[in-house]
Design goal:
Blueprint: E1 6-14, E2 18-21, H1 22-28, H2 33-40, E3 44-46, H3 54-63, H4 68-73, E4 74-80, H5 91-99, E5 106-110, H6 116-130, E6 135-144, E7 157-167, E8 172-174, E9 179-182, E10 188-189, E11 198-199, H7 201-223, E12 232-235, H8 240-250, H9 256-269, H10 271-276, H11 283-294, E13 303-310, E14 314-322, H12 332-340, E15 343-345, H13 347-355, E16 365-366, E17 376-382, E18 385-390
Parallel strand pairs: 2-15, 4-5, 4-6, 12-13
Antiparallel strand pairs: 1-7, 1-8, 2-3, 6-7, 8-14, 9-14, 10-11, 13-14, 16-17, 17-18
Helix pairs in contact: 1-2, 3-5, 7-8, 9-11
Length: 392
Amino acid sequence: MSKMTIGIDQLGFYTPNYYVDLVDLAQARGVDPDKFTIGIGQDKQAVPPSSQDVVTMGASAANEFLTPDMKQDIGLIVLGTETGIDASKAGSLYIQQLLNLNPWSRAIEIKEACYGATAGLMLAKDYIATHPGKTALVIASDIARYGLETGGEVTQGAGAIAMLVTENPRIMALGDVSSYYSEQVMDFWRPVYTDEAIALGKYSTEQYIRFFELTWADYQKQTGKQLADFAAMTFHLPYTKMGLKALRTALPEADAVKQADLLAKYEESIQYSRQVGNIYTGSLYLGLLSLLEKNTNLQAGDEIGLFSYGSGAVGEFFTATLVDGFRSQLHAEQHQATLDARTQLSVPDYELVFKDKVPYAADNYQADPARFAGDFVLSGVTDQQRQYQVNE
């Protein structure tokens, strides 16, 4: 009996319809723009209105590719997020309702900082291995908030990536071996009483690199593979220079030609993130999507390394192999057109949108209909119940 091949069959992407230019933000904050655009490696930052949350963004990302037949085959719905909307109820249940997904499924939410979606992907792989014929929908959706005029302001962002995980996938097959490592580390956290995270930036960067070095070395020990065996390496990208710091620790293992090739592909993998910012659980997969849609040389059989990191902390290095016809499943022109069609906000308008948010209180709330965008919106909160609707 042949071994089952399981992996990513579809990739969807959504980001809010507004952004702030980081040169404008730097000038408003009295900072040299090069610090943001070169030092941090960001150009634009998605700005979510209060009518967008992890549910609406996640549903919109999945709605990009789901067909009626696909919806009926889904047996597992996972939302990976660290900006959940309820301390108890899974946001995937709202997504299930908005998308009219198969009710005979498991719908859950996974939290472990930026690692949650990877945990969901691995759970989906195991689920499909024991449920032939079934598929899984894994959604990474987040809003990164650190506050106005804070050190972390430049690494905010919002967006979602949706992945359909199946047998015989049409984009990439997940590898059988991965290395994962967990340790209680206080590099980043968000108390339950606030929607703004607390980050120890320098310390978190050190932990990110340490966890990469640990899992990469362990993966090599398990498999005997070297850097030269990979066509590309992709990373969790809270900001685009972060992954480069980790990649540089491994580059000396390869010759100069291979190093140049990996650096060029890394540059392709960060193009979407430069325009969107930090989307927490989805950042690794936004980088993967950018690589696949910006690169023209990758081909079936190429193996890609992926490093996932969630502060607190969990790290995992795993791999995926591109399959025949993968390019036909991508939507590069559509995604770039979506990014190009967004509305730029002035810094004062960005600050107004940032401050207009669903309250951390029992108050009723009405979102501004003038800023409704996307396939689905949060219209408001009534009696502590979120009100979602299709955006006509």
